[in-house]
Amino acid sequence: MGRMRAWWRRNAIPLVALALLVPLTAGAIGWQEWRTRFEGTHWRSTPVAAGATIELGGAAVGPATLVEVPADAGVETPPGGRALAAQVTVVPGDAPVTCARPRLVEVSTGRSWEGDTGPFGWRGESSCFDATSPVLLNVPFVVPADAGPFAIDLEILHDGPELPRFLVEQP
What we know:
Structural class: alpha+beta
């Protein structure tokens, strides 16, 4: 019994340090993981009315439109589906602007579709990287024929926490 008590006395400081440092280390690692995971995530969805423009990070973004893709454009559509193209104008300000590919979201259900780059000869860009001149994003989507109404989400890399959600007219 005396030996055991001596061991606890001898190791009291390292045991207290261990009891404090293990949870702190786990917390620091967890914090770092969550911080890097959400560092580039936009926290606030900002609705933008149909036909309107929003300024983000000095760039004018919008208006956004959704149009039917003509059958002769080369976009393959399965039975029961239709091809739509999301078109968004991005005009950089003083600094270059970077934007991700637009995502099409069904307003009523929250279903979303990732766009494609389009077939050979498709006009317009699918994203922009350090753009210094105006860019027309023109991204095709294949959606179910009964889907809609839609909104277009577009991530613009800037300092603010906004993710613009452009409400668009049904084509």
